[in-house]
Amino acid sequence: MKLIHSDTLRSTPREVKELVRDGVYSLYVVEHAEAGFVLVTDRGDLYLLSHAGTIMPAPNGANLESFELREAVSFSDASAYGSACVNVA
Amino acid sequence: MSGVWKVTKTNTLWVFVSCSHEPRHLYDVIFAVDCLRHRGVADAHIRVFVDHPTPGPYLTPYGISAIHSVEEVASKLAATSRYQHVFTTVAGHGSTAGLGPTAHTVSPTKLLTDVRSVAGISHATLLVTQCYGGIFNLLDATQKPETVTIGATNLNPSLSAPINMPPIKQKNGSDGVSSWTANLFMLEFFNWLRAPKDVDGDGRATLVDAYKHAGAATNQHLRAAKAGLFMQVRRLGEELETARKQGKLPVEIDAIELKLNRSLETLHLHQEPWLLHANLARQIQV
């Protein structure tokens, strides 16, 4: 699984990145000529993301199987909104 | 059963069932498996059943390879033996009818029957952490093999909240996920399991202690989270209005609206855990 700093996707709206960090939206590294990532929302809507995070519509009729998924992605930095710190034994 | 029965590294089968397409529910399972490994449980004693469309990219980097579909629960469990106890954790989404999509809902009775089908077990535990977990309550717990059922919440949604913890290590040694919106009860239950403590002072660390720790710790997290959520809801409401006025992309508006709705739910709902068959739970030492 790939952990990147959220600033890497500087063109992606903050709330979208928060939902990826939350584990509500899915983000994958993909092999694609024009995109670096594919985003899947909680409703199953698909979007392509450039390497800088610009969101682009997925091709008509595309689904997850249309892409060669490399790795699942989340963020290495903490949420901007704050969260509970869990002390792991 | 009378006296005390102890869970060891090898006498218990650990089963996870998660009906969800959201990665956060896979992260919940990854953390729980990490806790079991910390206790010395080998992967051979762990089974994961999911209906996520692409579980591999999430679970495989953490060394979780025994991944099956939820539809295989009955057949895989019926083909399993050599264990004295089966500990099944239900993660992911639940509904008022059970688990999974409407067309293939797994009812509480069906899941309990599947769990009891493991040949040779003396007893079982069912930890239900999903929404409407209370529909798993009040089943016949004394039917053989007897069953403890622990619910994170009763007949209402189960609450999750953003957490931060030290990164969970991946199989290749690199840092993995450390921040997600976690099912708090499941998180704290397995956090207790990582290093069990006697909560009620009876001299033993049993399932009853795990239940008491998880319930209290969950509500402590929620109490702290709600203070921040009150301010967050106000800010998100303003952001949503601005985004609509500015004609932002639908994907951004949807994200703000979803974040707002989930924050409102966590802010206003209450969670009350429950336990069925306390006499057996008090005897199962972990």
The largest beta-sheet of chain A arranges its strands as 1-6-2-3-4-5
Radius of gyration of chain B: 19 Å
Radius of gyration of chain A: 13 Å
Average of pLDDT of chain B: 96
Strand order of the largest sheet of chain B: 4-3-2-5-6-7-10
Written overview of the protein:
The complex is a heterodimer of chains A (89) and B (286). With 89 residues, chain A is mainly beta. Chain A is 10% helix and 34% strand. Chain A has 1 helix and 7 strands; from the N terminus they run βαββββββ. A 6-stranded mixed beta sheet of chain A has the order 1-6-2-3-4-5. In chain A, a hairpin with a 5-residue loop joins strand 2 and strand 3. Chain A is elongated. The mean pLDDT of chain A is 92. Chain B is α/β, with parallel strands linked by helices. Chain B has a 7-stranded mixed beta sheet. In chain B, strands 1-11 form a two-stranded parallel sheet. In chain B, strands 8-9 form a two-stranded antiparallel ribbon. In chain B, helix 2 (56-59) links the parallel strand 3 and strand 4 (67-69). The radius of gyration of chain B is 19 Å and the shape is globular. Chain B starts with a strand and ends with a strand. The model of chain B has no long low-confidence stretch (mean pLDDT 96). Chains A and B meet through helix 1, strand 6 and strand 7 of A and helix 1, strand 8, strand 9, helix 5 and helix 6 of B. Strand 7 (84-85) of chain A pairs parallel with strand 8 of chain B.
Secondary structure: elements and pairs:
The complex is a heterodimer of chains A (89) and B (286).
Chain A: E1 2-4, H1 14-22, E2 26-31, E3 37-40, E4 46-49, E5 55-57, E6 68-75, E7 84-85
Chain B: E1 5-6, E2 12-19, H1 23-38, E3 46-50, H2 56-59, E4 67-69, H3 73-78, E5 85-92, H4 108-116, E6 123-128, E7 146-151, E8 160-164, E9 179-183, H5 184-194, H6 207-245, H7 250-268, E10 274-276, H8 278-281, E11 284-285
Parallel strand pairs in B: 1-11, 2-3, 2-5, 3-4, 5-6, 6-7
Antiparallel strand pairs in B: 7-10, 8-9
Helix pairs in contact in B: 1-5, 5-6, 6-7
